[in-house]
């Protein structure tokens, strides 16, 4: 018994008022006897299908079970399509394919073209241009483990390059600022941890099933914290890196400086992450002030140069 055939039959029954066994058999190139077995399986799954005999008879889902297609507005269906489509780019699975098929079954023919047009007006692609090839398969492993309450074993590398072997109960997948994370209860640390997926390696789902424990979602909105520790520095940039600088601040912070450069009031926190952002602009960026950050940039530049001189 093919699951995809059962799903397709359900979609057809949702879309049509009634359809005969022979018509379904011809459609799927199987015998009417096979179709009857499929209908029995669908009934056992909890979807009430009834049959009527005689002229115009066939199978139909009981009317009280069906959803009225007019319940969903064009905007509702467009939003659902965009969400499911963007997620399916990164996390693949039969449930997403089936969900998309079900949503399509709710679209009346006279509204299909308009909904497709509006859906295509916004395209969300979460897949990276390049990078860690393990991200997508690891997302699917974690998603399955969360659904089935199964333990994950893996190696984790901290920000200083230290590698440890871990076992964790997975609870949540998180996409934050184009980076994937997953929250789990780490049995090595006996506490909840937010793991960065790119630092996760040798990930495997275990057969052992865990009993979910109560947990709090990770605090991801750090706007208030950033406001208290963030300051602004003055940098001079070449116009060739303007689009990259705009990833961190808006154009209102740019002041033209001749034909080729801009003076920018740049948001900054004094840590390695932000210093590395400035270095990422290469020789197209100069820190003008404050003086102590300019001196620190100079010191770090000398350290980099010393690596190549030796």
From TrEMBL:
Residues 2-57 form the HTH deoR-type domain. Gene3D superfamilies: Winged helix-like DNA-binding domain superfamily/Winged helix DNA-binding domain (1.10.10.10). Transmembrane segments: none annotated. Signal peptide: none annotated. Pfam families: HTH_11, WCX, WYL. Keywords: Transcription, Transcription regulation. The keyword Glycosyltransferase does not apply. GO terms for molecular function: DNA-binding transcription factor activity. The keyword NADP does not apply. PANTHER family: PROTEIN PAFC, PTHR34580. This is YafY family transcriptional regulator. It comes from Variimorphobacter saccharofermentans.
